[in-house]
Amino acid sequence: MKPLQQLLRPNILALKPYSSARDEYTGEEGVFLDANENPYNAPYNRYPDPHQRRLKRRIAAFKGCESDQLFLGNGSDEPIDLLFRAFCRPGTDNVVAIDPTYGMYQVAAATNDIKVQQVLLTKDFQLDVEAVLAAVDKQTKIIWLCSPNNPTGNCLRNEDIERVITGFEGLVVVDEAYIDFAPGRSLLPRLQEFPNLVILQTFSKAWGMAGLRLGMAFAQPAIIEVLSRIKYPYNLNVLTQQKAMDLLEQNQQEVAQWIELLLAERSALAQELQKLPFVSLIHPSDANFLLIRTPNAKAVYQHLINQKIIIRDRSSVSLCAGCLRITVGSPEENKQLIQALQAYK
Ligand SMILES: *Cc1c(COP(=O)(O)O)cnc(C)c1O
To answer: Which helix (H) or strand (E) holds 198?
Structure first.
């Protein structure tokens, strides 16, 4: 890996962070007359902890890493944007990303005026390692990977990801938003081996907290420190921090049961979909959704919309002609979906 000083934008390297009132005094008790808060309307009157110390300790313990290897954001979308802002000089630097993949990397790149060199996955949606590394030039700061990938649903092979990480001198981001559905596949236990690796995870999928907006980035402490330095000081509100603490404590077993149920439902759903004459292929999935192929994607999509069942039309995405993406729902929702599809002619 190149030294961090060479990878960072010079203005970010030189930046001094905003120092909030709550940075300077960290005790929990006291008469707080430092932040121009209103003394009434507790507990919402107080600014949240800008460093999210308690929540970070809890999540780090749960994930088996150190607090200083963990960044918490307003969804994963926040660290995605911050990584561009910290490392990529607008109009000059570029990133490499796989295609097809999650749309936010493109959007964050575009808002930061960064070019994305897209590299097609192979026909079975795996990495073309040589092509990814060949797309790198002097201005490439980040390679974006996603495993399990969205919208394809499959995990990339960890050997391939590792070859990208060791073959590139900039950062490699691996978005593991769906990793809870693919036990044993996360690269998180190996974080220490790779100084240029950033792993993204989220509470939006398996943990059922999409509405709370809580995402994670894991990386070596020097990278985490940079993201923390440039974030909004109070990026996680009081309610999100408190509710996430509660759910982490109370819901661990329930989350494990949801995952088990959703994986069983995924198989059952795949079996039913297989029987439909107009479904030509169901791609193997390591996530909580299925990507299916049909000669009449738009018509099937519209048929479902007419019955107020909303899926995702991915037929205009690279390598995904005729593809529809279907989230695995509750048994009742999946039954409704299948019944609606059986009525399609
Ligand atoms: C859903 C999803 C996310 C989650 O984003 P949040 O901002 O954490 O809700 C991240 N990456 C991918 C690939 C996703 O599909």
So the answer is: strand 197-202
Nearest-angstrom CA–CA distance, 30 and 33: 9
Question: Half-sphere exposure of residue 315, counting CA atoms within 13 Å on the CB side?
Answer: 14
pLDDT on residue 157: 98
Give me the count of residues in the chain: 345
How many A from CA of 101 to the centre of ligand 1? Answer: 11
Instruction: Give 219-273 pLDDT, tens digit per residue.
Output: 999 999 999 999 999 999 999 999 999 999 999 999 999 999 999 999 999 999 9
Tokens (6 digits) for 309: 């069942």
**Nearest ligand 1 atom to alpha carbon 213:** 9
pLDDT digits (tens, 9 = 90+) for 113-161: 999 999 999 999 999 999 999 999 999 999 999 999 999 999 999 999 9
Is residue 94 within 8 Å of 170, Cβ to Cβ? no
Pocket test residue of 80, 145, 150, 213 for ligand 1, highest count of atoms within 8 A of CB: 150
CA of 215 to the centre of ligand 1 (A): 8
Question: Measured in angstroms, how far is the CA atom of residue 283 from the centroid of ligand 1?
Answer: 20
- Which residue's CA lies nearest to atom 2 of ligand 1? 177
Report whether 125 contacts 155 (CB < 8 A).
Answer: no
CB 94 within 8 A of CB 116: yes
Q: Which residues are registered as beta bridge partners of 293?
A: 281, 323
Report the C-alpha gap between 66 and 57 in whole angstroms. Answer: 8
Is residue 282 within 8 Å of residue 270, measured between CB atoms? yes
Cis amide prior to 148 (ω within 30 degrees): yes
SS3 of residue 40 by DSSP: coil
Residue nearest to atom 15 of ligand 1 (CA): 150
Q: For the sheet with 215-218, list strands across it.
A: 70-73, 215-218, 197-202, 171-175, 140-146, 94-99, 115-120
Rounded alpha-carbon distances, angstroms, from residue 85 to 58, 72, 188: 28, 16, 24
Whole-number Å distance between alpha carbons of 6 and 169: 11
Q: Which two tokens stand for residue 274?
A: 């297989």
Q: Which amino acid is at 141?
A: K
Q: In whole angstroms, what separates CA 262 from the centre of its chain?
A: 19
Distance CA 97, CA 173 (A): 10
